[in-house]
Amino acid sequence: MKKLTYLVSSLALVASANAFSHGMMSMMYPEDGAMMMSQAERVEMHFKAPVKLVSLKVVPDGGAPLPLSIDRSAPATEHIMVKLPKLAPNTYTVHWKAMGDDGHMMDGSYGFMQH
After folding, report:
1. What are the pLDDT digits (tens) for 9-25?
2. Start-to-end CA span in the chain (Å)
3. 110 and 12 in contact (C-beta within 8 Å)?
4. What percent of the chain has pLDDT over 90?
5. Who has the most CB within 10 Å: 34, 39, 51, 68?
6. DSSP 3-state assignment of 21?
7. Max Cα separation, the chain?
8. What region holds the CopC domain (predicted)?
9. Spatial separation of the C-alpha atoms in residues 83 and 94, rounded to whole Å
């Protein structure tokens, strides 16, 4: 368990640098590196400027991306929320890609644990 905690913590540090690399994201839920004791029901991201969600994948460790319902035709917004299916205990990585109003593509990833 100590090795898993160390691995998740290390990955969280690397991933958080990637997720905030453009300085555009101001908040995320679940938080990067979070250990969720209650069920995570959504992925939520707040940006400093409106963005259009291009792609969002939530991938369990050792598994395939979860089925998510994403409206790619939605207008640009500063707040993105996508409902999650019931999560089994595991480590999850959130991969996102968004486009700013100026056409600039941004992407990042971060991780959390579901207990």
Report:
1. 545 544 444 444 445 89
2. 13
3. yes
4. 77
5. 51
6. coil
7. 45
8. 22-112
9. 13
Which of 61, 79, 65, 70 is closest to 11 using CA atoms? 61
Tokens of 95: 């991969």
pLDDT at position 97 is 96
Instruction: Dig out the tokens for 58 from the structure.
Output: 């939530």
State the amino acid at position 103 in one-letter form: G
- What average pLDDT does the segment 84-101 reach? 97
Instruction: Return the amino acid letter for 112.
Output: F
pTM of the entire structure?
0.79
Element (H, E) at 27: strand 25-29
Dihedral over Cα of 110, 73, 101, 81: its sign:
negative
